[in-house]
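Retro notes, structure queue

What went well: the backlog is down to a handful. What didn't: a couple of records were mislabeled last round, so from now on we paste the full input next to the output in the thread. Example, using DUF3567 domain-containing protein from Curvibacter microcysteis:
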Amino acid sequence: MQMLYDSDAFVVVHMLADSGLPTEGGTAQVPQLARHGFEIVDKRSGKEVYLDGAWAEMFQQIVLRWQLNAPTEEEVEDTLERYAGLAQNPVLVH
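Corresponding output:
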């Protein structure tokens, strides 16, 4: 888990897939569907959305562009605002 962004309005966390699961023989078993995702928490509404699969891949492209172009906080917040519209799950523990 890696915190990517934290402001008064949003938190974005990159959830990384485990690199391997321990087994009896001491060797790691690599998961067949190693996936990652992004959790976006809208602090104002107290709701979160988890992006995985194709949604996570699209969001990853946005994050990569942010790293190259260094957007303003307003530009980041505007993008996260669009994703916040998908948030339906109340934040219970964080």
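Agreed that this is the format going forward. Reviewer comment attached to the example: The first helix runs from residue 53 to 69.
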